[in-house]
Specification:
three-stranded antiparallel sheet; 41% helix
Length: 215
């Protein structure tokens, strides 16, 4: 992912990326502090019914960038067919990726935090006859089908929160009722398609029988 970003999207002034893997249990990253603050905030809100409420609470600890309107999600696994694995990555303390004018983007891994192994050379991860510019990453779909078991569990939860008529009596859950309506429409369309296919099979069988009788 970082190789593709450095090659395709990084500013011209960006020449190198260095990734450091902290010692497990000894890191105090900004993200860890933010998660801790968010957990404390959510404990004070036992019931949250809308996505907008989550965005409001999250905005108190940082900038909100929503998936879809503000950023896209790509299937990075599509690049695996063009790239080799990083040998020894599980024991590496640092990964260094840099841009070269001729050979493109190269990388190397280091076993120490503060000193480089002079025996290790930068190398490309591209497989033979592959180019970074040829790798196209498709968007990951932002929605997926909900299993019936999950829907049943969700229905029970909604009834517990707002009663049997939750879709009419609780305005905050209006967005949730649209999910159930879409599922009903999708199931209805699926049943209609199955009926058409079954009807087509019956017609074919009738046609075959008529032809046999005629012969």
């Amino acid at each position: 992912m970082l190789m593709l970003w450095l090659h395709n999207f990084a500013p011209e002034t960006m020449k190198k990326i260095e990734v450091t893997f902290p010692v497990r249990g000894h890191s105090y990253l900004p993200a860890d502090r933010i998660f801790g603050r968010v957990e404390k905030i959510l404990r004070r809100h036992a019931v949250i019914k809308t996505p907008e409420k989550y965005w409001e609470l999250y905005s108190t600890v940082g900038e909100i960038r929503k998936l879809g309107p503000d950023w896209s999600l790509f299937n990075i696994k599509e690049a695996l067919g063009s790239l080799k694995k990083v040998v020894g990555i599980s024991t590496s303390k640092r990964i260094i990726i840099k841009k070269r004018p001729v050979s493109g983007v190269v990388m190397k891994s280091e076993l120490l935090y503060r000193s480089d192994d002079l025996a290790k050379k930068f190398q490309t991860l591209l497989k033979p006859r592959k180019r970074l510019a040829q790798i196209v990453l498709p968007d990951v779909p932002l929605g997926h089908a909900i299993k019936q078991k999950k829907l049943d569990s969700l229905q029970k939860l909604l009834v517990t929160l707002s009663g049997e008529e939750w879709y009419d009596t609780d305005p905050e859950l209006k967005w949730m009722s649209e999910i159930f309506e879409n599922v009903v429409v999708a199931n209805s369309e699926k049943e209609d398609l199955q009926d058409q296919e079954e009807g087509g099979e019956v017609l074919c069988e009738c046609a075959e029988n008529e032809e046999n009788d005629f012969i």
